[in-house]
Amino acid sequence: MLAPAAGITDSITRQIARKGGADAVVTELLSSEALIRNCPKTREMMGFDESERPIGIQLFGADPENMAESARIAASYNPEFIDLNFGCPARKVVGKNGGASLLQNLPLMEKIISKVVNAVNLPVTVKCRSGWDENSIVAVEVAKISETNGVSAVCLHPRTRKQGFTGIADWSLIRKVKKAVNIPVIGSGDIDSPQKAKQMFDQTECDAVMICRASFGNPWIFKQTKHFLETGDLIPEPDIDIRISTALEHLHKSIRKHGEWYGLIRMRSKLCWYIKGLPGSSKIRSKLVLLPTEEDVINLFNDYRGQLKEIDYETRGHQENPSESKIGKN
Questions:
Q1: Rounded to the nearest 5°, which phi and psi values hold at 2?
Q2: CATH no. of 240-316
Q3: Which residue has the higher pLDDT, 272 or 89?
Q4: Of the given ranges (130-134, 148-152, 207-211, 230-234), which has the lowest mean pLDDT?
Q5: How far are the Cα atoms of 74, 140, 172, 197 from residue 175, in angstroms, in the given order?
Q6: 182 exposed, middle or buried (CB, 10 Å; 0-12, 13-18, 19+)?
Q7: Residues designated catalytic
Q8: Fewer CB within 10 Å, N or C, the chain?
């Protein structure tokens, strides 16, 4: 599954992930308060393309009645499921008593879950962290509350709110949750390769895995992971043609939806992710953030593609130290 990431996993990114092999996706987290107040931006963020199915709409908030009402609104868009976020560590979410802040108030969390489950006829899932800090690990309790109140599956990112995205995810907690409940358990955290996904399945016995940061600019990780789980073999990394063509496809869809200026602004960091780790990519990134049009980006990327292929040709010709100095000069 593609994990939801605020400001990143928009509709177009989810479409690319599904094309890359993700079995399911989830929207960015949406404010229940904004939804019930009919905020146009939040309503737009809730929209999705049919190619994204199966998809869940993720909600956050701290008022049980408002969460139930926002769930009814989300259900009217006919997703496959509604996801409740009790894990987001962002200050602006926690400051409104949403996301991970509910890990400090399990009775309120239970009221929210119960109200939402009873408000919609769709499956409801819960995504949470292990606890507020190392002294208040509540993952098992959250999973049990979720199951008791009719939740269909629970996803655990086994870091505390205090950890943010630092340190190491404690996969042993996923195993404990799996042992404690009978509903499906989804594992998340530190999966950056097909091998890591298999390790999580083996160590935790979870039912599914959710991949986040490792998929940024790398939607092929889903197909690679499924192939590795099925065969034990690794699919080769995508070549430069696939990387560049996918990046430009992503850019084109963004511009078609948002217009050239804003569509390009939204894509600058994502375009950089597609070429991360390639020779001379830092020079390309420094140019990329200054380009004002789609045509400029296409020309830059196509020139870069040609330069990389020339380097590869030289390498195959057994040149001992193929020069990368030409990259980014044009």
A1: -85, 125
A2: 1.10.1200
A3: 272
A4: 130-134
A5: 31, 10, 5, 14
A6: exposed
A7: 88
A8: C
